[in-house]
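ok new one. same drill as before - structure tokens go in, u give me an amino acid for every spot. 466 of them this time. try not to just spam alanines like last time pls lmao
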């Protein structure tokens, strides 16, 4: 077989078997958690929902976390069906990591006037599967348990336990930073340790030797070691770098402060910047869960509790006179799951749990409205029937609570066409196709050049013979 044919065969094989690589940067999918209806926490509530207007407004075309952000308004016209005055106890659940709670605050209004509410941080939530489905559901009993005011009962420590806190204060005048290690010995199997301000850690099981370290420059540094089980001696050494063979240095100052402190006081001091915002229970539970896995807990093990999605519950009361009607509205932001597995520009899918509304005395007349954005003017899919009006707004009306939770998808077109899928396939393989195309071009140039040279040599050879 000619060499140029072999080269072409290799290029074609590479094109056929190449792994897809997206031309656009960023993830292909990014799944978000569902939204929820408000829930009564009175199991025998006399409050009925006479009418609900549920509006998803995307007209601002705002983007965040790989999602198109929608402003949701869930407006309920409610009635106290009893002959007595009551305080309707309600809760609005949503899923959020605690660091992002202030970005899109929730607003609760009664007859158009904002009211105050309490925030309760519940348990961590389960993950979303590869299809973007969230399997968990909110039920009344779970809500009642989540908003309990009882103090969390840990299994791996006791609130009254007293431990020893070692605060290691470090400073230096040298121009270059140095790496400082604090060394001590204790049996990990029988110890519970909390550390803060460290960036290296080592433990030798044979000798029970611990070493924790940090970098020190002209700014003062403090390492903390809190031992719940036994006191120990600490020696501190400095090194030119963090390498195992780094030269030892002594041009730094160290002061070790030793304090006896109970676990509650230390944990609240440990998370001082956040405790007023998030409450104590979150951290007590995070510490208990961390100690379940390891006896050596670093500050990241606790602060990571802020990153993980959890149930956040907004609780409030609405007073009703006998047979009185009121309008209760919850406003919040919703994020959709992004998916561009079939398209170049993504689709955005939103899920809203309607089933918590089954706990009201009665539920009637649900209206769902979706106001799309200019960039995404179409509801591509909806599991509940919707009608598009001349104004571009989609509307669905239901006499009673639907049996299914609501799910819909927004897209820039009414349908995903074959052309969209072809463009997506090309976009996936863009970098590979460009590389393969360039290589193929080079091979063709070489082939053409070879043919030209061959013809010139034949011409020259025939001329010599003549």
């Amino acid at each position: 077989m000619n060499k140029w044919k072999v080269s072409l065969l290799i290029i074609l094989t590479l094109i056929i078997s190449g792994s897809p690589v997206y031309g656009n940067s960023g993830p292909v999918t990014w799944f978000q958690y569902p939204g929820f209806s408000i829930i009564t926490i009175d199991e025998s509530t006399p409050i009925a929902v006479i009418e609900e207007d549920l509006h998803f407004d995307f007209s601002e075309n705002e983007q965040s976390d790989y999602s198109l952000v929608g402003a949701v308004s869930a407006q309920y016209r409610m009635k106290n069906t009893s002959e007595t005055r009551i305080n309707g106890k309600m809760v609005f659940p949503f899923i959020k990591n605690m660091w992002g709670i202030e970005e899109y605050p929730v607003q609760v209004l009664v007859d158009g006037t904002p009211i105050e509410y309490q925030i309760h941080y519940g348990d961590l939530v389960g993950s979303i599967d590869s299809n973007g489905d969230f399997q968990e559901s909110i039920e009344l009993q779970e809500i009642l348990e989540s908003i309990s005011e009882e103090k969390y009962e840990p299994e791996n420590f006791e609130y009254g336990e007293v431990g020893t806190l070692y605060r290691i204060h470090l400073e230096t005048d040298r121009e270059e930073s140095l790496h400082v290690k604090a060394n001590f010995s204790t049996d990990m199997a029988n110890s519970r340790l909390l550390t803060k301000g460290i960036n290296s850690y080592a433990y030798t099981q044979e000798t029970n030797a611990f070493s924790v370290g940090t970098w020190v420059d002209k700014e003062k540094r403090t390492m903390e070691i809190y031992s719940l089980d036994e006191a120990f001696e600490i020696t501190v050494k400095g090194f030119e770098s963090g390498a195992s063979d780094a030269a030892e240095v002594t041009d730094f100052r160290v002061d070790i402060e030793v304090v006896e402190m109970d676990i509650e006081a230390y944990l609240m001091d440990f998370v001082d910047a956040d405790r007023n915002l998030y409450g104590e229970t979150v951290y007590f539970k995070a510490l208990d869960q961390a100690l379940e896995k390891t006896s050596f807990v670093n500050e990241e093990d606790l602060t990571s509790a802020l990153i993980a999605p959890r149930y956040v519950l907004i609780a409030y009361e609405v007073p009703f006179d006998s047979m009185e009607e009121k309008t209760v509205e919850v406003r919040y932001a919703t994020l959709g799951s992004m998916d561009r597995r079939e398209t170049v520009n993504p689709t955005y899918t939103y899920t809203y749990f309607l089933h918590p509304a089954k706990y009201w005395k009665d539920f009637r007349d649900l209206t769902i409205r979706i106001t799309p954005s200019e960039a995404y003017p179409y509801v591509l899919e909806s599991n509940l029937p919707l009608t598009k009006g001349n104004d571009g707004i989609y509307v669905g009306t239901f006499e009673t609570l639907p049996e299914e939770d609501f799910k819909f998808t927004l897209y820039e077109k009414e349908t995903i066409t074959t052309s969209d899928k072809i463009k997506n396939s090309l976009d996936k393989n863009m970098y590979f196709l460009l590389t393969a195309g360039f290589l193929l071009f080079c091979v063709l140039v070489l082939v053409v050049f070879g043919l030209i040279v061959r013809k010139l040599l034949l011409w020259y050879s025939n001329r010599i013979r003549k």
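Residues 3-23 have pLDDT under 50 and may be disordered. and btw Helices lie at 3-17, 140-146, 263-270, 275-278, 280-293, 299-307, 418-428, 430-465.
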